[in-house]
Amino acid sequence: MKRFISLRKRISADDELRSSYAKAISELIHLGIARKVEQKELRLPAGRIWYLPHHGVRHPARPNKVRIVFDASSVCEGVSLNSCLRKGPDLLNDLIPLLIQFRRFAVPVIADVERMFHQVQVPLHDQSFLRFPWTEGDEAPQTFQMTRQVFGLRSGPASCQYLTLFLYVVLLNRE
């Protein structure tokens, strides 16, 4: 909570940052990437809840846009969320064989998944580990939680890569 109080002080001193930050959080909620936690959900058994500190990062080319970054490596009582997660295997292809294979075809095709991590749903029973406080003013903070993968989770890259490969195989077998 100390980091949230510090964040609130920092963004309250900068109107542009406050507006951009609020807009970024609202966008996460609007797109279903995050949601407000209902009152009845606030009390889960001990060990089933984790609060992630967050802060905003501005891109030099787009100073009016803020990207919300969650810190899963933040330590609380000697433990971080990332220390409890497995990294998983690196499922990405090596660059050299990929470049050689790329030359085999007359028209190579590549793709980039926009907001890849935010495209991958987190199972409902694990979403309580991705909670964060937020408020747009001086009111008491409300609790929100991410419903999709968070960039910065130790297990995130392997989870997203596995799902991408799994869906590729499923779609390939449909043809």
From TrEMBL:
<protein>
    <recommendedName>
        <fullName>Reverse transcriptase domain-containing protein</fullName>
    </recommendedName>
</protein>
<dbReference type="InterPro" id="IPR043502">
    <property type="entry name" value="DNA/RNA_pol_sf"/>
</dbReference>
